[in-house]
Amino acid sequence: MARLKPVLAELKAYTVPATPPPVKLDANESPWPLPEDARRAIGDAVAALPFHRYPDGRATELRAALAEWLGAERDELVIGAGSDEVIAMLMQAFAAPSDGRPPSVLWPGPSFVMYRITGLSHGFVPVEVDLKPDFTLDPDAMAAAFAEHRPSLAFYATPNNPTGNAFDEATLRALIEANPDTLHILDEAYGPFAREPGGSAHSLSPWLAEYPNVGVLGTVSKVGLAALRIGWVRLRPEMAAEIEKVRQPFNLSATAQAAATVLLTDHAKVIEDAAQSIVRERTRLHAALAERDMDPQPSLANFILARVPASAKEALLAKGVALRFFGDPRLDGWARITVGTPAETDALLAALDSL
Ligand SMILES: Cc1ncc(COP(=O)(O)O)c(C=O)c1O
């Protein structure tokens, strides 16, 4: 143990309960299972795989399907086993000291916990800049932190997890323009929900054409395919080629590649329908939480942050409802509620009303 990285003493393994409760609103998954025809098509594609061979390391077919779906070029994409792995690849590629100091990674928070965990385990100095009390960006604090730390990487989850809001675009642009030596990663894990009901999703990916120091992170985990573990970052091709050098040779299983390719090629409507239905249900859930004076925050994601005392956690679980509570003192008194099916919203509201 003596030679383990000392920073591991600060970290805890990421664990999730083994038996999920009936109303699982704690992990920002889609509540909708895949329809039968999509499952059958995936089954056929998987049954035909050459299981005795390594998978295609470059994920050629999935890359083509994903590029088409995103409107991206194939060589702009680095694909990983979830965007978690892509975050780790970015960290690995950028874990070099600069100006004689260890590398640093900056993000506005509270936000996605893996920026800190992955940063620490790759030797980065983590720099989390507090959001304002209303969870918007603090432009002065961000500018000051950039000036002090000159981070190699910056991550912005927009819409942000767990607050649900998207960050101000003018502020983001100013930070990207003022800090050309930083690679700024716009994490759009929740991008498919960044829309009003009936509208189409808003993405910052057009910024790739404007800024060489920007990447856009994405995932299919939130739109119904969490089990596959497929995420990506879209970057200028010359930067993508550098990140590819740290990718494990066979990082995506053949089964995940085949399933995701079938989905994105022939059943992409399933993904769009799930996003649309979640956005509609989000409006209903928001109104119901507001009626109960739970101060639901405006959300462009597939979850809503609302006031729920931590003491309600076990009582809700006893009624079969799991929400996400946090150890972070800035999130005391708040819970993150994933948008479920209409029936799950009913069950949640009944459980809340009974407490
Ligand atoms: C902001 C954000 N980015 C990235 C991820 C990672 O998603 P995945 O590894 O499933 O693609 C998550 C998951 O919760 C997230 O909230």
**The CATH homologous superfamily of the largest domain:** Type I PLP-dependent aspartate aminotransferase-like (Major domain)
Helical amount: 25-40%
- CATH topology of the largest domain: the name is Aspartate Aminotransferase, domain 2
Level-1 CATH class name of the largest domain: Alpha Beta
Class per helix and strand makeup: alpha/beta
Largest sheet: 7 strands, mixed
Strand and helix order: EHHEHEHEHEHEHEEHHHEHEEH
Low-confidence runs: none
Quick one: overall form? globular
How does CATH name the architecture of the largest domain?
3-Layer(aba) Sandwich
How many domains make up the coordinates?
Answer: 2
Bound molecules: pyridoxal-5'-phosphate
